Amino acid sequence: MTEADVGALIRDYGLLIIAPLALLEGPVISVASGYLAKAGLVPLQRVFAVLVLADLAGDLLMYWIGRQGRAGLALPWLARFGVTRRRLATALRAFRRNGGRLLVLGKLTHSAGFAVLLAAGMVRMPLMRFLALNTLASVPKTAVCVAVGWWFGAVTDRIGNWIAGGALLVLVCVVVLGVLHFRNRSEVRK
Fold this sequence. Notes:
By secondary structure, this protein is an all-alpha fold. The chain has one domain (3-189). It contains 8 helices and no strands.
């Protein structure tokens, strides 16, 4: 496969490739997408919309998992990160008081995003408020990442294969773990 072939694939199917990868790792894919847009391989406006929508879809998934937390979906995962029921109760009280601020801050810092998105669901933040605040934080965050890729994207040219390979590896691992999880659950029920 030549470089021209890869370019043609990205031009023809770039958005279809970018969307699921952005769902898994938005900031890295946003930077790479900014570079692809500058190179003329994907349209900037469309890739930006796809990146924001993928980010919101991933966040909605975390919100939904949080909402299911009382049914036992989120708590076992949080326990793996050392979150006890007492710590969780304290965090949820804080989130009830300052949920909007914490949601936006968690989105912008990225490192706290996972916990904040789960907490939003667990405290039953109204869905429309969650979406509005989340969109307000997602748009500038995505814009900054795309801009970094646009202006400094030559670096992604050298590591682009590594990023794509890593994202593909993560996707495969998630699918395999999901299949194993559901298979184990069905065996336990028998």
